[in-house]
């Protein structure tokens, strides 16, 4: 289930218009009219992007008077944040091991140093 959620979020954020909406809503709620203004597309096309964001639970909207106000739902991004954190930890561990190996090889290359055991073992 978590993988499906992550896949949905990544697919939703693959579009630059939807990412721009998310970035704008990070600053606070906004009416649809204001969200659509910077994008060179007809309003019905823009509303399709908002629909995708709402189906992914990244954005919520409510009618306030004659306007529809959209707001970011940041908690919906938590599965992706956790996934990215795990990936970063894995890569940091790998680069730390690589740095240790490079350091050991550099020490061995210094004149007068005797070879040491392979640091990977």
Topology diagram in text:
Blueprint: H1 2-13, H2 16-25, E1 30-31, H3 32-36, H4 43-55, E2 59-64, E3 67-72, H5 78-109
Antiparallel strand pairs: 1-3, 2-3
Report on this model:
The protein is elongated. The protein folds into two domains: 73 residues, Arc Repressor Mutant, subunit A; 33 residues. A hairpin with a 2-residue loop joins strand 2 and strand 3. 60% of the residues lie in helices and 12% in strands. It is mainly alpha-helical and 121 residues long. Pfam families: HTH_20.
What is the percent of helical residues? Answer: 55-70%
Shape: elongated
Percent of residues in β-strands: 5-15%
Mean pLDDT over all positions: 88
Q: Please count the beta strands (DSSP E, at least 2 residues each).
A: 3
Gyration radius (Cα, Å) is: 24 Å
């Amino acid at each position: 289930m978590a993988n499906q959620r992550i896949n949905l979020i990544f697919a939703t954020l693959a579009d630059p218009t939807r990412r721009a909406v998310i970035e704008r809503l990070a600053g606070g709620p906004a009416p649809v009219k204001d969200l659509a203004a910077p994008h060179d597309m007809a309003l019905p096309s823009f509303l399709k992007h908002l629909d995708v964001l709402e189906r992914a639970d990244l954005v919520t909207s409510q009618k306030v008077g004659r306007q529809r106000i959209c707001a970011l739902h940041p908690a919906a991004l938590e599965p992706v944040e956790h996934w990215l954190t795990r990936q970063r930890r894995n890569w940091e561990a790998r680069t730390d091991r690589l740095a240790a190996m490079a350091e050991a090889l550099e020490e061995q290359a210094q004149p007068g140093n005797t070879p040491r055991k392979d640091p990977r073992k």
